[in-house]
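Letters spell out the chain; backbone shape is given numerically. Both lines appear below:
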Amino acid sequence: MAKIYIICLSGEREKLQFAAMAASVAAVSGSEVHIFLSMNAFPYFVKGHRKEAPAEGELGQMMAGHNVPPFYHIFEQAVELGDARIWACSMAMDVMGVKADGMEDIVAGPMGLTKFLSDAEGVQILTF
């Protein structure tokens, strides 16, 4: 089985959308997918935080008017329908003062970057 590791850093709608689509397609196609959330992507997976990211450009603005499923919903599908796991950056959790129970249910738990990169050794890594 193929493995794909995705690092989400950006808080921009287009990048989160594409990361979610890549994760979902890979997961439902039988790949093992691991997603690492950090920096500006992290807050969207904290309970109570808004789930709509600002658009970077024209296409991102147009997505809302064309009934494109939101990135968060697509990440949920990747977890529910495929073999995808979402990990929260332990450093980002510390900086924001968020405990594991403060993360949305689709997040498997906290993980450090060193562990994530060690697990991903020799495997394809996508960064958004």
Observations:
- The chain has a mean pLDDT of 95.
- Strands lie at 3-8, 32-37, 83-89, 107-111, 124-127.
- The first strand starts at residue 3 and ends at 8.
- Residues 3-127 form a domain with the Hypothetical Protein Ychn; Chain: A, fold (CATH 3.40.1260.10).
